[in-house]
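Dear Dr. H.,

I hope your travels went smoothly. While you were away I took the liberty of generating a structure for the chain from your last submission, since the lab meeting agenda had it listed for discussion. I wanted you to have the full record in hand beforehand rather than looking at slides cold. The sequence, exactly as received, is reproduced here:
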Amino acid sequence: MQIVDVAWKTSDDEHYESGLQIWRENVETLDFLPLVPGKHINWSFRGPKRCIGSIDPSGNVIKCPEDSVVLRQGSRCGPCSAVDFYDPCIRCDGRTCTASEARKIQCDMSEYAVYVVLFNDSTLKVGVSTNRRVRLRWIEQGADFGGIIQVITGGRKARRLEDRIGKQTAATKVVRGERKIKSLQDKLDIGVAQTIVDDFIIGVESIDLGTHVIMEDLSKYYSLPSLEATPRPWKKRSDPIDKRPLVGDIIGMKGSLLVTGIGGSYTVIDLKQVIGYSLDSDVDITMVTQSGLMDFF
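The corresponding predicted structure, in token form, is as follows:
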């Protein structure tokens, strides 16, 4: 099986299920591999890294017809990137749009949330999501607190606002996996988090954002409990992924971070690192149908 993405599924308004989206051999529909706490895993990853496919206008993920090998930094080959419906949107800052006409129309008619999330080490990030899945987007990132700054019709307008806010010195638009791993045992009270965000919003110059963004504590949505010991990283930056094993009991997940345990020791892996690689596993796979149009954006 090939790993396509890290996935969180909504089971109801208060519960989310974590896992991996995968391609199975000779199957043209995405499968979902649930990652349930307490489950023992015995995994081995195999290279080379291969293209994960493209997304069509209906929101379906299409297998790469050539099963192409891709560079370490990417996840799609050139031809699949060229036909992917959402690929131009990944780098959008709201100024120049290179998407198809159909995507432009869809974007201009959709409702977007410009949001702020906070991590337990006080890292503050701004971003954009479709309004209907904004909380799911926060959870996918592993944020500890989240709040909506403004809801805007039109993706390019939302991206321009995000870009302006993200240029503030107290904010970032990207939080690396290594930073999230280092803050796994940090704790931040909701009151402190609210104050940090309030001070940030008031301090933003030349943009009228109002004076208050209501922050939500996201801790209850993750399956990862408080850790008694610091987890060791699954690999160093320079270590190869090919043929590298991951063995242990699943402790839980937070965003794309999976923590496993053997005895009293923990290991943490950012599953974003292994997208595109093949996974040898003895875990059963649950079949799911393709998700909706915006669930992959």
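Two observations you may find useful: The helical segments are 78-83, 87-90, 101-109, 134-141, 155-166, 177-182, 190-203. The chain has a mean pLDDT of 89.

With kind regards,
E. W.
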